[in-house]
Amino acid sequence: xxxxxxxxxxxxxxxxxxxxxxxxxxxxxxxxxxxxxxxxxxxxxxxxxxxxxxxxxxxxxxxxxxxxxxxxxxxxxxxxxxxxxxxxxxxxxxxxxxxxxxxxxxxxxxxxxxxxxxxxxxxxxxxxxxxxxxxxxxxxxxxxxxxxxxxxxxxxxxxxxxxxxxxxxxxxxxxxxxxxxxxxxxxxxxxxxx
Amino acid sequence: xxxxxxxxxxxxxxxxxxxxxxxxxxxxxxxxxxxxxxxxxxxxxxxxxxxxxxxxxxxxxxxxxxxxxxxxxxxxxxxxxxxxxxxxxxxxxxxxxxxxxxxxxxxxxxxxxxxxxxxxxxxxxxxxxxxxxxxxxxxxxxxxxxxxxxxxxxxxxxxxxxxxxxxxxxxxxxxxxxxxxxxxxxxxxxxxxxxxxxxxxxxxxxxxxxxxxxxxxxxxxxxxxxxxxxxxxxxxxxxxxxxxxxxxxxxxxxxxxxxxxxxxxxxxxxxxxxxxxxxxxxxxxxxxxxxxxxxxxxxxxxxxxxxxxxxxxxxxxxxxxxxxxxxxxxxxxxxxxxxxxxxxxxxxxxxxxxxxxxxxxxxxxxxxxxxxxxxxxxxxxxxxx
Lengths: 194, 385
Description:
The structure holds 2 protein chains of 2 kinds. Chain A is built from 8 helices and no strands. Chain A is an all-alpha fold. Chain A has one domain. The longest helix of chain A is centred in the N-terminal third of the chain and has 30 residues, at 36-65. Chain A is globular, with a radius of gyration of 18 Å. Chain B has 3 domains: 76-131, 3-methyladenine DNA Glycosylase II, Chain A, domain 3 (Orthogonal Bundle); 141-304, Alpha-Beta Plaits; 310-369, Alpha-Beta Plaits (2-Layer Sandwich), CATH 3.30.70. Chain B is built from 14 helices and 12 strands. In chain B, strand 2 (198-200) and strand 3 form a beta hairpin. Chain B is elongated. The N and C termini of chain B lie far apart (86 Å). In chain B, 31% of the residues are buried. Mean pLDDT of chain B is 80; it is low at 28-33 and 371-385. At the A-B interface, helix 3 and helix 4 of A face helix 2 of B.
């Protein structure tokens, strides 16, 4: 079992990296990678929300939706769960740790309806993962996304000094870069077969 | 009783409904990964509605409880102040963004209401009104460029063809400008300005638009040569040079640099100028912006930002012919016999205001003359605006 958990973890972080292999979460990916500071803040918030959101969704899916054969409601329910949790976290953080709230709070609002946050519980449900496996997928995906953000942010900070042709400045060159990194990530495919 | 009813309900309606749905679509499914089924049980629909309703109610109550339990009391004044502030989050006030300043100025009685540089005095007055603090006079600041050695006035050490950015150019032996203290002219400050207040002149020098500049200090931080400084808007006479080179070296490199000759020091009526380290600096606490040093400077290194200077005008009925004005006038623009009414030669008057300050009878008034007597750099500044 431990072997499968580890496999899922590594597979979700590297081989099936959400940004570079599944092309999800590109909006936030391009939005926050202009600065290293914001991408690190986003990475932390994202991984935490993903873990807790996946756990909550897993409980509701396993103990409510499966017995009542309501699997087709996955998308609606998971969006609701994540949105409610994020909203609650936002309110609690504002009261309990204002410092953390002002550092990470702005990202929380962006996360609510993010596709990666939704994709993790959906994949968990589809593959009928156990709780540990779901957590491994969530943590792996979170770290994989953080890796993507930090790689991209470090490149884009250097890119400011590069002599980019005018029509490629800004987003276009970032897309080209993402494509190149995605090519590199293709090298991981086949490393582990599930 | 209830069971019987629900049984009846289920058998009756599920068949009718399923038959109806199955007529419309041969296989009922939601698509995606959901397995298609041939027959929809009414049970499924009831459960789905029930689950969504329960979840909705649970989340609603939970969020309401969280909101009630973890309520953060926000002083309505904070919100008012935040709305008053420009929202540029420039940090010129010394707090983290406009929200930070709004909280500090409302919560802390020691924080002055006039710290918002972009908002200038209207915002300070409003904040003072909201918080009940004394506004205090706001003397707005502005970014001043301490270099006039553009492409035409200064020499280059080599031809630079790297990245067109000052921070990159400065890495190449301190930049291509022969003067080590001057503006490189690759517009890093222009790109750093969040208010579009900086444009580059044809001579590759930054021009500050005084209407748009909010003295946030972003350009000061961005300039690798420290050419830009923040100065008070009212102190509009500035020695636009930072060169600590000896006069002879300055002459070789730049036509408009300060050569530390000391003319301005001798000219200044209030001893506001001192030469330190081969560079004349104006002490702005003493400076009366009379503009005399601007006229005397042999290299035109002193910059007069006042576009139109007023002219002295003597009220004949008050003039007692004391002759003090003629003595203090640095350009001998006033003439007249003792005990007779004096006259100002408008062509000579430079609008320094010395005579007005010295006249014991208060017979002299400084009058704005719209056409004549524009400061020698006024045109430049007008072009920038």
